[in-house]
Amino acid sequence: QLGDEVVSVLHSFVELCFEMLQCIIHGDSSNQLYLADNFTVLVPFLDMSELAMRCMNEMLANNMEVQEKKITQSVLDQFIAMLRDSTMNYTILSVLRAICSCQGQGIDSNQTMLATLLLIQGQDLLIQTRENEVNSNELKVLCPSEVNEISLESLHGRSEKYFVAQLYTFAEMCYDRNYIAMSILHEMLPYSVLIKISKSEG
């Protein structure tokens, strides 16, 4: 294993690389398109580098051409595969959320693809919620790869951040009224569940 000093040097080097990338792509749509060809190279660093997340957001939030030309079924498949290989990596959900809109406009094609990949085919990657049959005021949740349910209020740390990122992603999938996502989510998260989540003290 690498020593702490070596790890620290490598981390500093990575941060400098992302700082340079951010300068290169800032306001430059052509460079953003070039970097977008390497989306999946950036993703593993999102959890450890705020600069990596800034680079990703710079491309997705401001460049409609990146959204329309670079976000393909294959790219989304890779993101979903990375999410499956991780342990509730909420930063990947944040990227999927950003893929759903650009410049205040919903990207219908991306939202629809993601609805299929995540809401239908990838339900095992999501924190499931259901109303407690015994206590009508309580919600039960089941985290990915877990076998035992817990109460919503018991979600803490990484699982709590993942759940919040999941809800934000759901909301962005419905942005500008994508009826496919809205229809699926209406079954997954009925209004009674959403109200209980909003009232949660967690």
Write structural notes for this entry.
The chain has 202 residues and is mainly alpha-helical. It is built from 11 helices and 5 strands. The chain has helices spanning 4-25, 29-36, 39-42, 50-62, 64-70, 73-85, 90-99, 108-120, 157-173, 179-188, 191-199, and strands at 101-102, 105-106, 128-131, 139-142, 150-151. The strands form 2 sheets. The protein has a 3-stranded antiparallel sheet. A two-stranded antiparallel sheet has the order 1-2. The longest helix has 22 residues, at 4-25. The radius of gyration is 18 Å and the shape is globular.
Summary of the model, kept short:
With 202 residues, the chain is mostly helical.
SSE map:
Blueprint lengths: L3 H22 L3 H8 L2 H4 L7 H13 L1 H7 L2 H13 L4 H10 L1 E2 L2 E2 L1 H13 L7 E4 L7 E4 L7 E2 L5 H17 L5 H10 L2 H9 L3
Antiparallel strand pairs: 1-2, 3-4, 4-5
Please tell me what the overall shape is: globular
The assigned structural class equals mainly alpha
- Low-confidence parts lasting 5 or more residues at pLDDT below 50? none
Using only CA atoms, what is the Rg?
18 Å
Overall strand count: 5
Question: Which features does this protein show?
Answer:
single chain, 202 residues, mainly alpha, 62% helix, globular
